[in-house]
Structures
1.
Amino acid sequence: MSGQRQPSPSKRRRTNIDDPDQRTSSLPSEIPLSERTKLRSDASTASRQGSPTRDVFNQLRLAKPAIICEPQATGSIPNTVLSLRKRLADGFGQGIIPRGLESRIRESDPAGAVVIPEYPYFDSGHMSDAALGVMWNELEEIRLQARHCDIYGKDENAWCLDVGPLSCNRQSQQIDADLLPMVRNNLTRINKKADYALAFSCRDPEVSSLYERVRLGGHGYSISQSTDTFNKRTVLFSGVEVKPDDGGKKEALAQLAIWLKPLDLADWLLPTIGYTVVGHDWYVYIAYRIGNEVHIIGPISSVLADTRSTYGILKLRDLDSRVKQYALDVYWPWVRDEILQPLSMHTFSED
């Protein structure tokens, strides 16, 4: 699974203007409060505007198909979803830190090292000093780049580009308008992009051969929700939505939900996975379909990861490895046998 990474689309920088005159002092007030003094909440004023993000979630619930975002699954849960959660969580974060890096971690981050439990370490006697050195340099580059983005308040594009080693197999994608959820009240489509997508690469001989046989472009077939000339002809598995450290977690989820919906077409029975990235923190969501509803649950608390520390980055690599393994072992065989092979046979029957 791969794909040459492209720069994230240009996005407008968010600025927070903090007016000192509008701040509330933390010092004891010297102004006496009389019985006539009234404390008003801005929430009750007519000028206060509703939350655009909350409005998006309301629209998604009324869209066709309905998209339900929940912290926990409710009602009937497909066995495929339970199996995926178990695959992601079992042994997560165990045996991921080479013992040979322990001294470097303690030197680099003494405070963080003392709270690392014993179970993440494994005997790295089989690893050469050179291999350990390469691994350490990679981890430090990610940690320092993420720290730099955090300290200097860099925007979304910087988090995408500077913490790029974790997203090297993903690229920004626009969603096909025909696959976007339809809002009932005004029949407009919610148009969103995903910052990155995980694809089954045509560099693999088996995948390339099957894509060629289907010949998506020539007969108008599209397997993914992307509008990109090349990537709409490839199977996209996961979406990643990135926000800066002070970005909105709910806003990221709303955009991810819109991206994951087209992956869950009527016959798309297996659950898919999506990430939201808010600064250092990576959150995982599972999307699946029940009847005419697409459910997106998460974040999955048992597999939280971040880029604040070496330990957190290694947990993120563990998570990424588990997601890719599910895609290769479970998702790809199903897509190949149930979706692509029939399309391939149908194509040849028309020739």
2.
Amino acid sequence: MDSLPKRKPNRLAGYDYSQSGCYFVTICTKDREHLFGCVVGADVLIGPHVQLSEIGATVKQTIFQIPFVDQYIVMPNHVHILLRLPASGNGPMGTSAPTRSVPWIVRYLKRTVTMTCGKTVWQRGYHDHIVRSEADYLRIWSYIDTNPAKWREDRYYTETGG
């Protein structure tokens, strides 16, 4: 009997994702479906930006409720979030440790959006990157900031929709 291939672990083995520091997280829609909106406005004055759908607006509103977000972008079929987790005890209103972990924040976002929309919109899992330097942080910030303008070159780009 053939065994199924093992999934590659998404997280860095043995790393504590509640440690203070910066994290770059990408969460995709189920089947990379364009649920969050479309990229519009390639004109010179405004520049490309994402026109959010109702679900995309829900994602954005939910991200606003997360206190540790430095930068983010809601794209048609994925979300990029740059998180900065504080040192223990430095969270807003004495936030407890579990709410300062990357997995907790991702679960909160996915669960809240799913409950609000009444359907599953997310793929299983998510991608993360531990930000290790100021140069890395600035590169990621710029990547998020320019993501709509580079949508057709994005690794998550698909032809369907925006």
3.
Amino acid sequence: MKKIFTYLSAFALTLLLFSCTKKAPEAPVSKMKGVFYTSIPASGEPIELLPGKSKSIDLRACAQEVSDMYISMSFKVDPDAVAAYNSANGTSCEMLPSSAFEFTKNEVMLPKYNKASTTARIRVTATGLEDNKPYVLPITIDKVVGTDNWEFSSSPVAYLKVIQVNTGPEGGDGSKEYPYILATPEDMAKMSDKLSSEEMVYFRLANDIDMSGIDNWIPLNYQSPYDKAIDFDGAGHTITGFHCDFASYPSFFGVMNGYCHDVTFLDAVIESGGDSGCGILGGYGGSGAVHCEVMRVHVNGSVTLTGNKTGVGGMFGTLGNATIMASSADCIVTSGRNYVGGIYGYAKTDCIVTDCWSAGTVTGAQRVGGIGGGTDKTGTGVQIINCYSTAKVYGGFALGGIGGFYNLDNADGTPDLSHPDNTFMNCIAWNEEIKANSTVAGDLSHYSIGMVVGYTSLNNTHIGCLRRSDAAYNTAIFFDYSDAFSIYDQDDSSPNSPLMVNTVSGASYNFPYHGKVAPAGKSLSEVAKGLGWSDSVWDFSGELPVIKADATFVPVEDVNGEGGIGDWDENKLN
């Protein structure tokens, strides 16, 4: 009996447990197969973007056949569909670069029995695009959550067509974000109409431009108070055949106020027949409180002064408040006056030239240099750092492979010690020739010529500069007096440790800086690399170092001076 009771108790307990256990609900089963595709309402016509601008585009998932389930979906790009699009439409579109689009909202909900989902969004930007080239972005459904009973329609991909349009200066608003776009010589001619004395105006080249058909160029900022600030972005393009012979500051900018970068001027011709300094970029590069900065700019051509003005250079006639970085000048610079240079002729104050090179031929009356002609009698001096020159330098005296005249020689002054504010650091004089072409027989008094600086102050700073080691070159550098004025090594110097100069009897103004001879058998690239020049700026793979297209620097703080542009006496040697 007890055993039967035990069996009955166990059976009752089993029934109780079974009755208390709830059966898990079954997952709903879709009885309606969804057929889905991607839809972009704005995909009919190409999306036109101005350079630097962006647009946001809506997209949806749509049902050709609706589902009876609540569904969430996301999207993806399908690069493989570009070929199918081009084949079907007879086009040659390229895939929109990944830098030019971003899904800003990439999940949608599709309620059951609905034919259109909520809205996703993609932003397309004119970044990394070429003007007027057609691009396409194929978008399709990526993930479907909420049902397994679905399939793609026969045309599941939506195609977003994008083109970067260029409409000339009207294409932007001149701001940093949306610069005016320049694509033709006519666009260049409209630049002056867009300038403002209230704020910086931004321009950008869209492509290479041939300006050989424009013969009446008026410099952009030639009128006092020179307050038209400009940011000119060449975007790596080339301006060919630029010509200017305007009466005031014949050049591209006139008085450059602002920033010019990433552009090449090829076969430029600058001519000045009046009393105005000149250069391909500017008659002046900054002045007083007007600052100018140049980076990754290369000029090539000729600059000729037949008038009565000092200060002529391949890039600028005069520097007033300027920084020039990673740039070059390969020019024929010719003047019958003083202060002539491969990059600039005359420097006034607060000027830095770093990681630059020059080539070509530089000819002047006196005070002629491969990089700079000379400096002003006042101000905080010039810094020339990590520069080289292969230019031929010709003049009467005060000639140098890098700098011409960097001293002060007033009659009541001390020319050997004056003006100790200039710096020449790690420069290389690799010039083909440095020769005096106008001397008075038997007169050594004004015959100061140096491999690095022709006429310097003993109290200037001279550090690490080198000259080429070619022996024949060193003995045949001068037309006259080569025996009297020998080339010799000089140690580094500073105001606290003045430069040592060999005296020459009868040479009252003999203060050259020759630097030291470079290691024999080394290429210029090897010499520059040995001086510690940065490989983030320079490419040392060839015989001559060249500036990289993406050369980078630690930013240089702008230094604002005081005063404006003025004329001055030539400060002739006494």
